[in-house]
Amino acid sequence: MTRFVAYLRVSTSKQGKSGLGLAAQRSKISEFLSDEDELLAEFVETESGRNDSREELWKAIRHAKRSSAKLLIAKLDRFSRKVSFISRVMEEGVGLAVADMPHATDFQLHIFAALAQEERRLISERTKAALAEAKRRGVVLGKNGMVLAARNREEAARFAAQLLPQIKSLIHEGASLSVISRQLNALEVPTVRGRKFHPQTIKNILRHEISISLAPA
User: Fold this and answer.
1) Could you give the count of Cα atoms lying within 13 Å of 113 in the half-sphere of its Cβ?
2) Residue 20 needs a FRET pair 20 to 30 A away by CA distance; which of 74, 139, 190, 209 works?
3) Bridge partners (DSSP) listed for residue 4
């Protein structure tokens, strides 16, 4: 039997009052728990994911420590996408279980958090660069498709190059292409075109076939 303390987070008080987001998280957690598992307590936080001051989270961690239980969350992105924050929690000595990624090791959680963090940075940089270029040229953003297409291809190449070491590490750990793509999708890490990952997507990244690596399989 494994004991768990659940931690759920919503971004706004409106979501908390309406149950929006909480119901989906509770459903994930319920699906994860087996008949032999014991859910000791549930802590709910209403806080932006950008804010690391999580009063309810630290209450949950202390409760888990006292009870020799694991901290259980529904999805990694509802917890945090910051590698430093996730590392800090793991250093507390409490086991972290993710309902949406039941077989992920601590090593894999670090990698997928790093991928999500890097993708957010790339999206932000790409958007800012496109707007700045459009403004400099005095054109409407939607009319410079060729410029954006070229920039997106460059971003795709850089993104694939950054993903490659992590993907190879996961494969070395025994993860299949299907598992890697499912876990990237579970973390809501989009491809450069904003689409979902598929096993073929991962395979194409491994082959550096950038022109098709970000299209659905």
Assistant:
1) 23
2) 190
3) 39, 70
Burial class (CB in 10 A: 0-12, 13-18, 19+), 65: middle
The pTM of the full predicted model, rounded to 2 decimals, is: 0.56
d(CA 193, CA 201): 12
E strands, 48-105, in order: 70-73, 96-98
The edge-to-edge listing of strands for the beta sheet with 38-46 is 38-46, 3-10, 70-73, 96-98
Q: Give dist(CA 85, CA 101) in Å, integer.
A: 18
Taken in order 106, 108, 114, 119, the sign of the CA dihedral is negative
Non-local (6+) Cβ contacts of 133 within 8 A are 144, 147, 151
Cα–Cα distances in Å, from 215 out to 52, 151, 193?
Answer: 35, 16, 8
Cβ contact 189:112 at 8 Å: yes
> What is the C-alpha separation between 33 and 2, in angstroms, rounded?
9
CA dihedral sign, ordered 55, 58, 64, 67: negative
Query: Using the 8-state DSSP alphabet, how is residue 12 labeled?
Result: S
Per-residue model confidence as pLDDT tens digits over 141-157: 454 555 555 666 666 66
Domains of the chain and any CATH numbers: 3-98 (3.40.50.1390), 115-207 (no CATH)
